[in-house]
Structure formats: structure tokens, C-alpha cells
Description:
Layout: E1 2-7, E2 10-12, E3 18-26, E4 30-39, E5 46-51, E6 57-59, E7 67-72, E8 77-82, E9 91-100, E10 108-111, E11 115-119
Parallel strand pairs: 2-11
Antiparallel strand pairs: 1-3, 3-8, 4-5, 4-9, 5-6, 7-8, 9-10, 9-11
Amino acid sequence: xxxxxxxxxxxxxxxxxxxxxxxxxxxxxxxxxxxxxxxxxxxxxxxxxxxxxxxxxxxxxxxxxxxxxxxxxxxxxxxxxxxxxxxxxxxxxxxxxxxxxxxxxxxxxxxxxxxxxxxxx
Length: 121
């Protein structure tokens, strides 16, 4: 079994910062790409940022220059540093990881349960 557990969400004022973490644990053979999505009430889940095993990153236009994704391959953890937060960043944030559970398994995407980020004064 594989678990992805997010932490670091909360309430922050506009212009503030938060750092999200997501740790993968369990029966993991190898992790490939990791990333973050978010879903606001009444809206579809959208991509926020992704990071490859080698560290190549990709961001949604709405967060470029404000958010930074990083990973620690030893700790099987992905991070999302969020600066200059805006009310429109309010959403549940979900991490994901593409991984194999053993050398013969296919690569599957696993999701965390989500952590709420609320940006409000």
C-alpha cells in the first residue's frame, strides 16, 4: 500500500506565504514525476505544478513567479512554497506521485487526501 500525506495548509492573509509538504510512504519501488493540483469549490481540479525526478518543473500560468515546487528524493517528499498568496488561490490542494510499487509493476498515479488553503483577510 502507498500513502501520500499532505501537511502545511491553513488560513493566511493576502500577500502571505505557506509551505505545503507531501510525504509518500509504503510499498514504493521508485517515484517518478510528482506534483500538486488544486480544486476550488464549484470548479474542476486544476494543475498547479509538477516536478520530474531530475528536478525539471512546470507551473500553471496563474502561479508562475509566486509558487515554487521542489522535492527530496531521499525522503520521498514534494513541497510547494506559495508566496504572494491571493484570495483566488483558496482551494483544496492535492499532491500526486507517479510511482511503481515493485520492479514489475506499471507506473500508477497516487493521490493524497488534500489540504485546505484559505487566503482571506
